[in-house]
Amino acid sequence: MPRNLKQLSVNKIFDGQQIQYGHQSDVLDCEMQFSIFLPVEAETKPVPVLYWLSGLTCNDLNFVTKAGAQQYAAEFGVAIVCPDTSPRGENIPDDPEGGWDFGLGAGFYLNATEKPWAKNYRMYDYVVEELPEVVHANFALDSERQSIFGHSMGGHGALTIGLKNPQTYRSVSAFSPIVAPTKCPWGKKAFGNYLGKGKKAWKQYDACELLKKSKEHVPILIDQGEADDFLEEQLLTENIIKAAEKSKYPMQVRFQPGYDHSYFFIASFVRDHIEFHSQFLL
After folding, report:
1. Which residues are catalytic?
2. Is 69 exposed, middle or buried (0-12, 13-18, 19+ CB in 10 A)?
3. For the purposes of burial, counting CB atoms within 10 Å of the CB of 248, is it exposed (0-12), middle (13-18) or buried (19 or more)?
4. What is the CA angle 76-77-82, rounded to 5?
């Protein structure tokens, strides 16, 4: 049994293992869960690792059970680590209005600075620092070969984390990402609560703003469904296309006709994303 981890479930799949663990997070000051797929190669040598960040209302199991990614992770011999989307527990503050787009399940992969959120909502540090330390201490993962991807709020997280840490992640990809949270209702609500009214602080977690000062070009792939109900108001994909052009940042942005915001969309193109990352990991 890996140290300091509690195994919650394990299933064999495509000759690898899909495992869920619980652990105490010092960064978030609560019990957390994460899921990890380990390809069969991890039994004999360190393997590359992909971090997947899920979207609003999700947890560590949505991608695991709906995306069908294990088949392709096994094909390319890469591990996938899926954290939860926020701190959890009875003492963790939630949206006082009971909304689903803020609080529990909606950590936005940032470090909150405002009360009462600042104590627990430090998902940026959890994803970038603490969780990698936990998994690299317990599993055969190659810390020099890692990339990050995600969906919606998690796509926002993958983009901002990848852009802020170009030495850590070899590539970044996203499905239906929130690319300009400083300009959409979801982002304004979350950032206003987590980070306060000073909008200057918001820019450090906005992919379009980060592109303006990015000096290193990490490979980026974005897929966006054209039938996505959130495209026009929340996702604002055209903003990142314009920001990339203005910053001369090369990235591939694909619009997929007929696809919506669901995991049906993710399952349709997840092999493309794992293959994309494998170019830089293997």
Report:
1. 152, 228, 261
2. buried
3. exposed
4. 100
Give pLDDT, residue 185.
98
β-partners of residue 111 are: 122
Distances (CA, A) of 186 to 196, 242, 244: 15, 21, 22
| 7-28: average pLDDT | 98
pLDDT tens digits for 174-193? Answer: 999 999 999 999 999 999 99
- Bridging pattern class, strands 220-225 and 141-151: unpaired
pLDDT of residue 3: 67
Domain boundaries, the chain: 6-281
Instruction: Give the pLDDT confidence of 67-90 residue by residue, as tens digits.
Output: 999 999 999 999 999 999 999 999
Global pTM exceeds 0.85: yes
Q: Which CATH superfamily is domain 6-281 in?
A: Alpha/Beta hydrolase fold, catalytic domain (3.40.50.1820)
Question: What are the φ/ψ torsions at residue 246 (nearest 5 degrees)?
Answer: -65, -35
According to DSSP, residue 114 is labeled: S
H or E element that contains 211:
helix 207-212
